[in-house]
Amino acid sequence: MFRRWAMMLGAMLLLSMLAIGQTSKTFTEEMRSSTEIAGAAFQTYTNFFRARQAGDREVLQGEGDEIEIPSKYWADQIKALKVLKVYIHRVNIVVVQRIQDGVEEGKYIYMPISSYLPMNGVDGFEYTPNGVQDGVHSVLDYKRIKDGLIALTPQDLCSKLNRRVQKYSLSANNWLEALTYVAADFKIPMGIAWVDLPETKIKINRSWENTTPRKILDEIVSTQPGYEIGLRDGVLHVSAPTLIPDRQNFLKIKIPSFAVSQQPIELANNEFHRQITKIVVPSLQRRLGGGALTAVRGDEPKIDLDAENGDVEGILDAFILRSTRKIWIVTFSADTALTDTGYRKTKSLYSPEAVPENQPGWSLFYWSDALPSEINNYKRGLR
User: Fold this and answer.
1) What is the C-alpha to C-alpha distance for residues 192 and 238, in angstroms, rounded to an integer?
2) From residue 222, how far is each of 9, 200, 211, 213, 238 by CA, in Å?
3) Which of 33, 50, 93, 276 has the fewest other C-beta atoms within 10 Å?
4) Are 215 and 162 a contacting pair, CB within 8 Å?
5) DSSP code of 240?
6) What kind and span of H or E run contains 262?
């Protein structure tokens, strides 16, 4: 990583000299042209990498595709924008000016050395204008949904699924993994109910041009007979109604009521699991007794939920719309044997066998999570 950044430093120094020019004059509102803001961004970038090359410990803490630049390296013109923070996103510069109700706003400055062209819908960004239109010094206004805390409306989800994607590549170890990668890359809340069959374990390597996330998902889903895509209340569902009839699918169980108030998602999920276990495997619930000790993340927002006359699927949707967990997965066993109450048994993604104590079972994932077991080595990328 450091070698790559060091190689970019020379190019940045030259670009900053050409782009900035005079920086000592008073920087007023009228003088803030796109060219000057772009120049200031170049200077900020250059200051940052000089410090990194010199071994500044504060700089060296940052890695990955989103690296915050300490304020001591901001150019004066950037400071004049009333900035909350500045960070690097895919080698471009993001100047954050406002954060309210989980939505981040400000300026997104495209850097000529970046191979990533800003596109609406990717990594939660929305741009005005839509993408790079003014050459190498483009400065875009942006809004960004941070950390998945803002739920998509059905209209938002449809818009996100139908946005144009110039290029997209995907390499996944299996079908399920491919679905979760697309969900993560395009920030799509997703519920997946799949059957653990051998044909789903085939690797997927694909590239697309001039397409949409919906078409990408349609092609992936179509590789497995019996599956279909559906949209419900801001969540995209992948399910197999011909493989798991509704009468055998615990996700279709009607729930008279379920309510939690200011609960961490882990505790709310455990409480809901106990409630559904009473229905699907009542003898198991009596044997297990109280709930197990559950680790709770301190940075998770607490959720409120008061649902009536819904179903299990709808409650799981509500969990991922109200928390930073954004994917739920139910893995049905390929074995057609049913529970005593007539429901298809489920498996844990963390075990190769159906686990009696996990009936019925599901998992909640962050967009950034890798699937467990051998599903670790993968490549994917937006360009």
Assistant:
1) 5
2) 45, 11, 16, 14, 11
3) 33
4) no
5) -
6) strand 254-263
pLDDT for res 8: 47
The pLDDT-based confidence of 73 (bands split at 50, 70, 90) is: very high
Q: Write the class of the CATH domain 156-365.
A: alpha beta
Domain(s) of CATH 3.55.50.30: residues in the chain: 156-365
- Looking at residue 118, the DSSP 8-state letter turns out to be P
Q: Is 170 helix (H, G, I), strand (E, B) or coil?
A: strand
DSSP class of residue 297 equals -
Query: Which of 67, 87, 91 is closest to 15 using CA atoms?
Result: 91
Side chain identity at residue 76, one-letter code: D
Cα dihedral 172, 175, 179, 184 in deg (nearest 10): -30
Q: Burial code of 257-273, b = ≥16 C-beta within 10 A, e = fewer?
A: ebebeebbbbbbbbebe
Q: Which one has a higher pLDDT value, 300 or 377?
A: 300
What pTM does this model have? 0.61
CA 290 to each of CA 204, 265, 270, 271, 294: distance values in angstroms, whole numbers, following the listed order: 42, 18, 11, 10, 12
Phi then psi for 18, rounded to 5 degrees? -75, -35
Cβ pair 196, 174 in contact under 8 A: no
For residue range 163-176, list pLDDT tens digits in order.
Answer: 999 999 999 999 99
β-pairing, 235-239 vs 190-195, is parallel
The two tokens of residue 276 are 């559904």
Write the secondary structure of 313-374 as one string of H (helix), E (strand) and C (coil). HHHHHHHHHHCCCCEEEEEECCCCCECCCCCECEECCCCCCCCHHHCCCCEEECCCCCCCCC
* 99 burial via Cβ count (<10 Å: 0-12, 13-18, 19+): middle
Which of 160, 23, 46 minimizes the C-alpha distance to 93?
46
Closest-CA residue to 259 (of 306, 303, 302, 304): 306
With contact defined as beta carbons under 8 Å apart, do 58 and 67 qualify? no
User: Whose structure tokens read 């070698």?
Assistant: 3
